[in-house]
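Q: What would this chain look like folded?
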Amino acid sequence: MGMNKVLKFEKIFNKTRNSKLIHEGIVYIEDSSGNFSWIKGHGGKDVDSPLLMASITKLFTTACILILQERGKLSLNNEISEFFNKNTLSKLHFYKSNEYSFDLCISDLLFQVSGLPDKFEEKKNSTKKKVINEDFSFSFDELLNWTKQLKPHFAPQTKGKAYYSDINFDILGEIIENVNGTTLAEAYQQLIFAPLQLEHTYLPQSEGDFVPNIYYKDKVLKRPKFINSCRASGGAVSTAREMMIFIKAFFGGKLFNKAIFNTLACYNKLQITMWPISYGGGYMRIALGGFMTPFVEKGELLGHSGSTGSFAFYYPQKDLFFVGDVNQFSNPALPIRLTMQLAMGAK
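A: My prediction, written as structure tokens:
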């Protein structure tokens, strides 16, 4: 991969950073072997600057679930009622006069096919709207109660339906704690950070833990309480360098047997606001091809983006990994668009 690719990557990143929304950013692209490696920072960000992973944290949660399944501690077929008392789950999923709360399985959460609503995005009093104006903390129980006040979108496992909702992964986080007998932060440390020797990746838990600021348009948001509360669905902090180590391990079989992807690679389109993203077993898929991109050969991006501008994707057709952050909360499509453009630049 020669100078031509590098020039294309430069051009694409320069165009992105010229957007008035982008105040700082980092892009890191590498192939499996590390023979090709390209890094570009903007606004003082480099490959070791702390960045908020936001929903890329879901890949950590997915990895823990898959590792625990491999160790025989749980199964994707387990009903979630095995891990909670009845009162906790009661009325969580009540759809068209039927209660589905006790039928939900771990796989329904992992594949985002539970039909559960999303307090982060939905309604006028969504947590996303609230967090733009103030910092606040919340507990898992509060999150469950908020979710119970919203209507589910469909019965679990309705054919062809998927709906992206943070609560699916917040529940998975509680299950990991229960099964592993530790806090979620300790589970991440034991199952992921220690084996991969990640020293600058962590789940903030107290006011003393550093949480990077987030940009919303031109406004700088300092939101440690909120990030401390996001946990399994979006609370982790990392660096581009360590996200690269993780995404390679996730898809490369270093954390769990990658044969499991045969089962996980069953994709459903998410709600229209998430277009062009489909969801598999704990990760996003973005198809490259068709009318949307002028691709001759079809390809796909596998991984995750975050609502704050973070991204970590694998492009198997070209054996490339893309990680980074554009730190902008006002437009969650930015990291998706950038990664797609970079993938096209790698042709």
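The chain has a mean pLDDT of 94.
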